[in-house]
Design a protein that fits this description.
The complex is a heterodimer of chains A (about 575) and B (about 220). Chain A contains 20 helices and 15 strands. Chain A has a 5-stranded mixed beta sheet, with helices on one face. In chain A, helix 9 packs antiparallel against helix 10 and helix 16 runs parallel beside helix 19. The relative contact order of chain A is 0.13. Helices cover about 35% and strands about 10% of the residues of chain B. Chain B has a 3-stranded parallel beta sheet with strand order 1-2-3. A two-stranded antiparallel sheet of chain B has the order 4-5. In chain B, a hairpin with a 3-residue loop joins strand 4 and strand 5. The two termini of chain B are about 45 Å apart. Classes of the chains: A alpha+beta (about 575), B mainly alpha (about 220). Chains A and B meet through helix 6 and helix 10 of A and helix 3, strand 4, strand 5 and helix 7 of B.
Chain lengths: ~575, ~220
């Protein structure tokens, strides 16, 4: 709790009178409440004069008992340090907030998400459409009074399952025996689907601008079923010849309501759900979530647990980057051979995860105040062999085969260039940001766990192109190995969990934002607790979702084949993009 | 199927021509050919797709079963492995892909989500099992199923293929195989097969509202579907 209290006080906050900007005085809450009319000005001054140039997260929260919808902003300085949280409160009937896209272009998709989920209208947003659901969907599902067809109760554990309930099928209780419900005036005969209308309307404008020339502009859909889109991701491009004139990503094909379910789960039940966010990096996701809740609870894990967490998080980073590189090469046309090399190493790391957690992918390993199990016998030796011997050799091998490969260089160099200013403005994170030359790594900028005691360098690129993103990933694998070598040497004996293992944890009322440097970038969890067993609000700042904000600007003006490579270098995982 | 099984002709083949002649049934040779080249569609939805890739990769290698040819096009694929959570936004595409697959076609529901919604079943954008829309041949439990489990599921599919007979398979019936109506995204996911049920239910609600002249009560009618 104590580190949360020391929020650096920016000069702006003092300068503004209390009726415009006031401290959030609710119990356990931090940050400031800005009156909606002054939001733009306050945010601009905070960015320009106080140096809070990085909008990390933006999300809505619903407080029906006070009849307000709140928009929560987390801003940071790219020079490092703790961040600042500010909020805007608007009435539920008429939620209108100024859009921050003009200040932080990275807010674009996040504001669309808040609009989609809460119905908050962002004034002067360039393209305010639904993002995860489709146009025409009835209602804004994250509002507390919105209930889906399979709704049972507000909070788990549900009475029909626990303590000695009878389980029944949800299908037997609803009118259509399926997870659907329709407004009472819905008439299937006189109804036309509008799910795609707005999207194509906005693209038609771009298409028609080119009319009059000898070539026609055509609209091409890539995805959601397309071998290069890394899952169910869809890009709709307007092409002139082979050149991309406009490109819009379409999300939501894997939107599985992580946050709505997360608000119903108990705090502990959410840990296995975080595994399924970015399913390649489950250990890192666990890490981010337990940090956020530990901040609220005010507990710290014992030292051995910290080492174990860092060990698992860094192994995850290595396996994720191996996969990213393998599949980037897939997109370049090196069909499956590099990814087979990458997957071979990943299997060895998965063996370790399976040994410690019992599952290859969905580890569910961390707990509030520690980890769930200690290392079984022989695992530390395996890790030692991997990080001192096998993986350094293998990364050198990959480096030797790929880095100077002529095709890799000619396809990647100078493609998808992002300047440092753009990268910060677009809220890019992780290798995307660092490849543009911004040495921002949460492990160094705002250290958590034991990273302060570990020696490693922040890998950065210079040119901000696809090739540098590749190089940064290679270098990060090396740095992670360096961290792991220190961790393996130094890991102390001792307990692995503070307190006793419990099914139900007591989380005091309040809010917290915990973040870690995941393999894809800054992974943040915004958690609001009311003192009940379930979180009131549970929001994930998903790095690959926000990194995708940079996809349209990077693709415009390039060739369609390069759009595939740019997407591959952003390294998305759809479970996290759509949540 | 081993070579001995294919060659179990139930006739006595004279010893002197055993080396030159093989007697088998059409069904056996037909199924033997099909079961050893089941081409999956390159189609991943979520977490399970990663395990599917691992199954295809070096350690597990489903090329051993003749399944390594992943086809990105539904026209060339024999089996659709539904690997991951089926969402309402995605199900129209899945149904369309299934319709586009040529017979004989099979569907494997890989993992808890594809089989019945899994941990995300209660979600407002989740279809509780792909079998609500397309017929499923093999269900594989697990979240996600390990590569071994997927291999086991594929072997189960091979066993299923073994039991089929040319006389009975649907793709040699005279009538064409009908397409499954593609669901539409409306206020919620709308299944064209349920238009009547929706109308009936809404009429029922209107009736109730007229009767009580107040908010319609939440009593649902008996199974309209």
């Amino acid at each position: 709790m104590s580190e949360q209290m020391i929020v650096s006080q920016p000069a702006q906050v003092y300068r503004w009178p209390a009726e415009k900007v006031s401290k959030d005085s609710r119990q356990g809450y931090q940050g400031y409440i800005v009156q909606a009319d002054y939001l733009l000005e306050f945010a601009r001054l905070l960015r320009d004069e106080d140096g809070y140039d990085y909008l990390s997260s933006l999300t809505g929260v619903d407080y029906p008992q006070d009849n307000i919808l709140e928009v929560v902003y987390q801003v940071y300085k790219t020079t490092g340090g703790t961040g600042l949280m500010y909020k805007v409160q608007v009435p539920r009937e008429n939620p209108v907030v100024n859009s921050l896209v003009s200040l932080y272009p990275g807010a674009e998709f996040q504001e669309r998400e808040a609009y989609d989920m809460y119905g908050i209208h962002f004034e002067s947003h360039p393209d305010l459409r639904r993002i995860l659901l489709w146009e025409g969907f009835a209602g804004h599902p994250m509002r507390k009074d919105w209930k889906e067809a399979f709704y049972e109760e507000d909070a788990k554990p549900f009475k029909n399952r626990w303590p000695a309930g009878q389980v029944s099928r949800a299908e037997d209780k609803v009118p259509f025996h399926d997870n659907v419900e329709y407004p009472s005036d819905f008439d299937p005969d006189n109804w036309v689907s509008e799910s795609e209308t707005l999207l194509y309307e906005s693209l038609k404008k771009v298409q028609e601008e080119g009319a009059g020339m000898k070539t026609d502009r055509i609209i091409v859909n890539l995805g959601p079923q397309h071998p290069s889109t890394h899952g169910v991701f869809r890009m709709v491009a307007v092409l002139e010849g082979e050149t991309v004139v406009e490109l819009k990503p379409v999300f939501g094909y894997l939107h599985r309501n992580h946050e709505k379910i997360g608000e119903r789960n108990t705090f502990l039940q959410n840990i296995p759900f975080t595994d399924r966010l970015d399913y390649i990096t489950s250990m890192s996701n666990n890490f981010g979530y337990v940090l956020a809740v530990e901040k609220l609870m005010g507990i710290n894990p014992p030292e051995r647990a910290e080492y174990l967490r860092v060990m698992m998080a860094e192994l995850t980073r290595i396996s994720s980057h191996f996969m990213a590189i393998g599949f980037l090469l897939n997109d370049l046309g090196a069909y499956f051979t590099p990814s087979l090399y990458a997957l071979e190493e990943r299997e060895l790391i998965l063996d370790i995860f399976e040994a410690v957690s019992g599952s290859r992918m969905m580890c569910n390993y961390m707990r509030f105040g520690g980890v769930v199990r200690d290392l079984p016998e022989g695992v530390l030796e395996k890790v030692r062999e991997l990080v001192f011997d096998r993986l350094p050799r293998k990364i050198d091998e990959l480096d030797r085969y790929l880095t100077d490969n002529e095709i890799v260089r000619s396809r990647c160099e100078g493609v998808g260039i992002l300047t440092p200013e753009q990268a910060i403005g677009l809220s890019c994170a992780g290798p995307m940001l660092r490849a543009s030359g911004v040495p921002y790594d949460v492990r160094r900028a705002d250290p958590y766990s034991i990273y302060e005691q570990l020696e490693f360098d922040v890998a950065i690129g210079v040119h901000g192109d696809v090739y540098d993103r590749y190089l940064v990933r290679i270098e990060e694998i090396r740095q992670s190995l360096r961290i792991l070598q220190q961790v393996v040497e130094r890991i102390p004996d001792g307990p692995i969990l503070t307190g006793k293992p419990a099914y139900q944890v007591r989380v005091p009322a309040g809010e917290s934002y915990g973040r870690v440097e995941g393999p894809k970038g800054e992974l943040g969890f915004y958690v609001v607790s009311t003192g009940k067993p379930n979180p009131w609000r549970y929001h994930v700042r998903a790095p690959s979702f926000i990194n995708l904000t940079s996809l349209p600007p990077l693709c415009r003006g390039g060739k369609i084949a390069d759009a595939i490579v740019v997407l591959g270098a952003i390294d998305i995982v759809l479970g996290e993009v759509d949540r | 199927m081993s070579i001995e099984e294919i060659n179990s002709p139930e006739y006595v083949v004279p010893a002197e021509i055993r080396q030159q002649v093989t007697l088998t049934t059409l069904d056996r040779i037909y199924n033997w050919g099909r079961r050893n080249s089941v081409w999956p569609m390159m189609f991943g939805l979520a977490c399970c797709a990663i395990e599917m890739i691992c199954t295809a990769a070096a350690r597990f290698d489903f090329a051993r079963f003749g399944m390594e040819v992943m086809r990105p096009s539904p026209r060339q694929a024999d089996v659709m492995i539904v690997a991951g959570t089926v969402t309402k936004k995605m199900i129209p595409q899945i149904v369309r892909l299934y319709n586009q697959m040529a017979e004989p076609r099979y569907v494997i529901a890989m993992g808890a989500c594809a089989s019945g919604g899994g941990p995300f079943k209660e979600g407002y954008n989740v279809v509780a099992g792909v079998d609500k829309y397309i017929p499923v041949d093999v269900y594989i439990p697990g979240c996600p199923p390990t590569p071994q489990a997927l291999l086991n599921g594929m072997i189960s599919l091979q066993k299923k293929i073994d039991t089929e007979s040319l006389k009975k398979v649907r793709w040699y019936k005279k009538a064409p195989v009908e397409d499954i109506p593609v669901p539409v995204l409306g206020p919620d996911l709308v299944d064209p097969r349920k238009y009547e049920a929706i109308k009936e239910y809404n009429a029922h609600l209107a009736e109730q509202a007229a009767l009580s002249n107040a908010a319609p009560d939440q009593q649902y009618p008996e199974n309209p579907a």
